[in-house]
């Protein structure tokens, strides 16, 4: 995800495809490591080293599955927000700044609480006035 957190479906698809390919390779590696342990043929390494390889491959698979799930959850949220009509940077901060400027240009203190809330929101988005 880039600095602006813009969701890009093409990048998401590419990323998930790469992760799924890695998962397939890990599944083959795990099966190969299990077969080597079962047969007792370790290819020049010790049984303990082969067991370590198996555990590391299984752990790496768990990590990639976690990343894939997180990406899919993020995509689901982003797509739902887009369907609901919500947008995210750079449009929202620009809109907040415009509203703040309109409210403060009027010079009316009756909007000060709203201006203060907008100021806080802009600061939380790390956007300079």
Q: How many extended strands?
A: 0
Q: In percent terms, what proportion of residues is strand?
A: under 5%
Tell me the radius of gyration. Answer: 25 Å
Return the structural class. Answer: mainly alpha
Share in helix: over 70%
Query: What overall geometry do the principal axes of the alpha carbons give?
Result: rod-shaped
Give the end-to-end Cα distance, rounded to a whole number of Å.
Answer: 25 Å
Please give the count of helices.
4
The largest β sheet comes out as:
none
* Poorly predicted runs: none
The SSE order reads HHHH
Instruction: Compute the average pLDDT.
Output: 81
Name its key features.
129 residues, mainly alpha, 4 helices
